[in-house]
Specification:
- This protein has 494 residues and is an alpha+beta fold.
- Helix content is 55%, strand content 13%.
- It is built from 11 helices and 11 strands.
- Strand 8 (408-415) and strand 9 form a beta hairpin.
């Protein structure tokens, strides 16, 4: 169970890491910006279009409502002017003929209408009808409501329009399969009767809710964004592929692979590739010249140093002989350290799987044999690919430095899929803040040393940093809050 949970956690972390790397890439950032830009533009344009549509719709509804309000007022005026005995006769005749534009009845009670939801257009129609009835007929007590045709009650509170015979009003108020709203005006014309007038709205859809984020508009926006992103991916792949090739070439160049890249593509890409190849050739010539120079210097110095050592050993006076031999040993170490510092690492060494944990455990065993306390905490969880001799030299210099100045040291191994982090903590005096960067310079020593310590010439930290940088990593130093120095070696996984 715990293994499955760990596997799922590792999978989630891997996905999160891939998403993070993609979002930090040029392609990911451009696509995110373009998606947000297109979506924002679509939303703004839809909103502006909707506002204009709403304005036009309101104006049209206001004009239509005025004409309908005058016809309603004329119909109400006609029925109210009829003698009481003739009103029912006229209504019966209209019903027998199939009705008119309006559905008109005389009811003995006010009918309760289930109003549809409020909207600005609904208020416009209601206000126009009400104001027209007041102006034309002086009627202030008209009840105006809007109903769904399937739920419209007529004649009384128990009879619905759909229950009546078709000839009574179906043709004027029902438009199957649509369900447009119906306006209902109820006016008390005496103490007993209510004039009931219902009419289908001129525009069946005038009360439809308008929204900038309807399903159709969201689908259109999504398709626009997807289309733009697909086209952008095609373009970006053509643009970023040469950059990716250049990045890989630069990475291989840092690892000792001197293979030039093809000078193809657009003018800008070809010029960049040509400049990179020229730079690579110049650096290669410089490194070769430098290696030959220092190899020649090493060869030229070894012979006189050896002669001087032999001559010193033939001296009779012990004090003078020992002093000269120590000076020659320091000179020999200075020459070897200089060559190490310049070469950084063996550029001809192949990258293979390096067991960093075993290296540190071996260093721990060796140190403990010499009564020096070195503790290693942690293990390498994933294989690391690098140059083994160079990595061993880097770790050895850092550990030796910690043991020499701090007497005891603790090494912490922190590992994940992306990088290896090794922290070496000692109990020494630390380094002043103003000299923290200076100690990485060759031949820099904070204290005099004639004990034969490997870093006594001030080259250990410089060599360690050069090796780390040759692997794409870094070495940093920091003082503990209480006591001691922490050296942090960071190595990325490529």
């Amino acid at each position: 169970m715990s293994k499955s949970l760990a596997m799922s956690s590792n999978t989630a972390q891997s996905k999160s890491s891939r998403i993070k790397r993609w979002s930090q890439s040029l392609t990911g950032q451009i696509l995110i910006i373009m998606a947000l830009g297109v979506a924002s533009a679509q939303f703004v344009s839809s909103t502006i279009w909707l506002r204009q549509l709403e304005s036009d719709t309101e104006e049209n509804v206001r004009e239509v409502s005025k004409h309908m309000a005058f016809r309603i007022a004329a119909t109400v005026s006609y029925f109210t002017s009829l003698p009481t005995n003739y009103r029912h006769i006229v209504i019966d005749q209209l019903q027998d003929m199939g009705g008119t534009r309006f559905f008109v009845t005389l009811n003995k009670e006010e009918i309760n209408i289930n109003n549809i939801p409020d909207s600005p257009l609904k208020d416009i129609v209601k206000n126009e009808v009400q104001s027209t009835l007041i102006k034309q007929l002086g009627i202030h007590n008209a009840n105006i409501a809007f109903s769904n045709p399937d739920d419209l009650h007529v004649i009384n509170n128990h009879t619905r329009l759909v229950d009546l015979p078709e000839r009574w009003g179906h043709h004027s108020l029902l438009v199957k399969p649509l369900t447009p709203p119906i306006i209902v005006i109820q006016i008390p014309i005496n103490d007993k009767d209510w004039l009931y007038l219902a009419s289908l709205m001129p525009d069946p859809y005038f009360l439809d809710g308008n929204s900038a984020l309807t399903g159709d508009r969201l689908f259109s926006m999504a398709m626009s964004v997807i289309t733009v992103l697909l086209l952008s991916i095609v373009v970006l792949r053509r643009v970023t592929r040469p950059l990716a090739t250049l990045a890989r070439a630069a990475e291989r160049f840092g690892q000792g692979d001197w293979k030039p890249i093809k000078e193809v593509g657009s003018v800008e890409v070809r010029n960049t590739a040509k400049a990179f190849n020229d730079m690579q050739r110049r650096i290669q010539r410089y490194l070769n010249d430098r290696e030959r120079l220092f190899a020649s210097i090493s060869h030229d110095l070894k012979t006189p140093i050896t002669r001087l050592r032999l001559r010193a050993e033939m001296l009779d006076e012990d004090d003078i002989r020992d002093a000269m031999i120590r000076d020659l040993e320091d000179l020999d170490m200075l020459v070897k350290g200089a060559l190490q510092s310049v070469k950084e690492t063996d550029i001809h060494e192949n990258r293979i799987e390096v067991n960093i944990s075993r290296m540190l455990r071996d260093m721990q065993t060796t140190a403990n044999l010499h009564d020096v306390k070195l503790t290693v905490v942690g293990e390498l969880n994933h294989p690391f690919i690098g140059k083994p001799l160079a990595i061993k030299r880097c770790l050895g210099n850092l550990v030796d430095n910690a043991l020499y100045y701090g007497k005891t040291a603790t090494v912490y191994i922190e590992d994940d899929e992306d990088e290896v982090c090794i922290r070496i903590c000692d109990q020494g005096p630390g380094i002043p803040i103003d000299k923290m960067d200076k100690v990485f310079q060759p031949y820099t020593r904070l204290t005099p040393d004639h004990s034969g310590h490997p870093g006594g010439m001030g080259l250990g930290l410089s060599i360690a940093r050069n090796i780390a940088r040759a692997h794409g990593g870094e070495v940093t130093l920091s003082n503990h809050v209480l006591q001691g120095l922490e050296a942090k070696l960071w190595l990325p996984r490529h």
